[in-house]
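Purpose: get a first structural picture of the assembly so the mutagenesis plan has something to point at.
Setup: two entries, given in the order below. No constraints added.
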Amino acid sequence: DAKTTQPTSMDCAEGRAANLPCNHSTISGNEYVYWYRQIHSQGPQYIIHGLKNNETNEMASLIITEDRKSSTLILPHATLRDTAVYYCIVRPTYNNAGNMLTFGGGTRLMVKP
Amino acid sequence: DAGVIQSPRHEVTEMGQEVTLRCKPISGHDYLFWYRQTMMRGLELLIYFNNNVPIDDSGMPEDRFSAKMPNASFSTLKIQPSEPRDSAVYFCASGTDNSYEQYFGPGTRLTVT
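Result (structure tokens, whole complex):
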């Protein structure tokens, strides 16, 4: 499985966009990039995933570089409730299990008033 | 839907005692996962089931740990005998082949003294 590298922590002002980077330079052609987050004392929560194209949903946008070696999760208008640890995960799609997730250290995002 | 349900939410026990953690997955989900989270090791997969059958238990730390899924709506993770190093938050998650998401429960915080 491809490994990911994320900054340990980041700060963001409330109301501003939060841009969380992730490097996955060894990603394979059939591997998806997933983002989960974990708010304090809760279980992880799915945010978004993508393969090649940029993706957007009601929570966030995912920008994947053309070479797929890195990606950025964008929270367009961060709120205090977005304070959490954000995990970037690369998941193989050939796996018959279909749903394996390997969590790394993640980025601790602190949204400040 | 109530989501993934875990019980108890908190468990404090003495070293050597048996501990049983319980999980009720989301109805209709055919995958169930047990994770453990510690400060030192982060979030790691212990075991997962597909259609009530254990598929991969390579993450189970040792023979003191066992997991069962007697039916589609219930799973247990048992530790016998428990040790202080088993202190962690244990998460259960469920999912399906048709969904890219894993849905996590609120976790059980286990403290072994």
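Chain A has no helices and nine strands.
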